[in-house]
Amino acid sequence: METYISILRGINVGGHKLIKMQALTKLYEDLGFMHVKTYIQSGNVVFQTKQTDSTLLENLISKKITEVFTFEVPVIVILQKEIVKIHKNNPFILEKNYDVNLLHVTFLSQKPKQTDIAKITGDFGKDEFIISDKAIYLYCPNSYSNSKLTNTFFENKLKIAATTRNWKTTTELLNMSLSIK
Q1: What pLDDT shows up at residue 16?
Q2: How far apart are CA 75 and CA 161, in angstroms?
Q3: 3-state secondary structure the chain
Q4: How many CB atoms lie within 10 A of CB 95?
């Protein structure tokens, strides 16, 4: 049985695409997933399944959400070992010792192409980012809400789905995944 974290993009924001976590938990259980746990109201779900294909899981969850709630939601599914690696290797903590309250991770649906990464240029003020495999580490000293380094920005440049969580949420999702036996 594999442990996964799924991250839904754009639910329960500004009164749009509303999904109660109890209903989301039921949806995951109806899909046959085990040990389903949600974290806060923004669509973070830890679960276990025998399925081993993250892309298949993303499509399955997204299709079921559309069927049940009648709107589309991008879903990114991360293996537990991937979030362990992402958490352990944050260069803004390891190399720069930045304040964790100013750190975020943009999770990517797949590893971006080097040619697309090379297209990311511009003035981002004091904001910094580092791309590593399927994650983008962000440092936003003036708040993520004021940053140009948004999900839409990275999706347009990298041509892949993206969703961002702050470091506290990333840490909590890691801990939740490790607590499932």
Answers
A1: 74
A2: 8
A3: CEEEEEEECCCCECCECCCCHHHHHHHHHHCCCEEEEEECCCCEEEEEECCCCHHHHHHHHHHHHHHHHCCCCCEEEEEHHHHHHHHHCCHHHHCCCCCHHHEEEEEECCCCCHHHHCCCCCCCCCCEEEEECCEEEEECCCCHHHCCCCHHHHHHHHCCCEEEEEHHHHHHHHHHHHHCC
A4: 9
Structure tokens at 38: 């949600």
Map out the domains of the chain with their CATH numbers.
Answer: 2-79 (3.30.70.1280), 82-179 (3.30.70)
- In the prediction, which pLDDT does 107 show? 97
Weakly modelled stretches of the chain, pLDDT under 70: 12-15
- Residue 112 token pair: 């971006």
Q: In this predicted structure, what is the pLDDT of residue 177?
A: 96
The confidence score (pLDDT) of residue 134 equals 95
Instruction: Name residues whose C-beta falls within 8 Å of residue 93's C-beta, 6 or more positions apart in sequence.
Output: 100, 103
pLDDT for position 12: 66
